[in-house]
Amino acid sequence: MTARLDNRLNDENHKCVYVVWDTDHFSTYKIVPANAEGNEVSYIDNDGNQQFGTLKDAVANAKDGSTITLLGDVTVSGTGVPANNGAINISGKNLTIDGTSEHYAIKAGDGFEMEMAWGTTAAGKVHVINVDNGSTVTLKNLVVDGNWDKTTE
User: Fold this and answer.
1) Which of these, 45, 37, 40, lies nearest to 3 by C-alpha position?
2) Would you call 31 exposed, middle or buried from its count of C-beta atoms within 10 A (0-12, 13-18, 19+)?
3) CA atoms of 120 and 99, how far apart (whole Å)
């Protein structure tokens, strides 16, 4: 049995993508939208199985060389992330993150701005995505929005 995404109903009347299970025997399965609550992405895990979950889970569990496909815009939090780290840390593996033809975005949510002692706001201490330890990350059809529009500082 294998799972695959089917987006034939992703048109102006049906904004959804479904998981289709291909089997060679008759069984009953509960079919849920691939972008059901909590599912931000799909990816192939280390065992070669297609999984659905959060972007953070996908980066941690995706097989080296995998493509992580966004199922919609993803907002990440910088709250509690140490300085000079990322809300999403990619270390020691090569990945592609695909925003699909919809050009979905990874967006900075809370925790990316710091209030300085003299009353101004600074950015850049926490990154949306941090890539290190020999990783190569390909961003395909993807917008990374750091949510920083301060033009006067």
Assistant:
1) 45
2) exposed
3) 34
pLDDT digits (tens, 9 = 90+) for 5-52: 555 555 555 455 555 555 555 544 444 445 556 788 888 888 888 888
Is 29 within 8 Å of 19 (Cβ atoms)? no
> How far apart (Å, rounded) are the C-alpha atoms in residues 121 and 114?
6
Residue 33: closest CA among 16, 13, 8: 16
- CA 108/CA 32 separation, integer angstroms: 28
Q: Is 129 left (phi over 0), alpha (psi -120 to 50) or beta?
A: beta
